[in-house]
Amino acid sequence: MTALPGPGLFREVMGHFATGVAVVTGMDPDGHPRGFTANAVTSVSLDPLLILISVGRSSSSLPTLLASKAFAVSFLRDSDREVATRFAVGDRRSRFTELAWHSEATGSPVLDDALAWLDCSLWKVVDAGDHQVLFGRVEACGLGEAGDPLLYFRGGFGVMTP
Ligand SMILES: Cc1cc2nc3c(=O)[nH]c(=O)nc-3n(C[C@H](O)[C@H](O)[C@H](O)COP(=O)(O)O)c2cc1C
Questions:
Q1: d(CA 2, ligand 1 centre) in Å
Q2: CA of 118: how far to CAs of 20, 49, 71, 78, 92, in Å?
């Protein structure tokens, strides 16, 4: 019998599926914004409008998203590599430093410079191995200034080269 693939090969295979890069955000009860870099963001349904995000169980932002029953997604631009890195590995308390943001309908923070954004109420949570899948009902969404997206491919950031 063939051995099941391990996580290393799985990550490498999934790394060949190029994605955009987003910052997923939520608001703490004490008014502090929280957020992390994410590429597991998918459009799910038009009626109702639903998206999903997949959040690691060890994510320190997860309790904020669950407690506030809301989250926002800001899609990053090609010029946002530093933002993407900061929200992935940077100190959690200073990720929003010198970054302009505002609260949308649910109270979740949205990056002012987002290429596009979605503000969601928490619709459903599904346990999925070492992650939790959060379905969000889109309460508001919009476009920022036109531009090109930041991409993620084979473990690195890239930009579109049409
Ligand atoms: C390009 C990229 C995409 C990522 N996508 C996700 C994701 O979809 N879900 C997730 O839980 N973590 C993802 N991560 C990892 C988180 O950004 C990282 O673990 C972060 O430190 C979590 O922050 P937190 O613990 O403050 O929530 C991604 C990282 C990178 C660089």
A1: 31
A2: 14, 11, 9, 19, 22
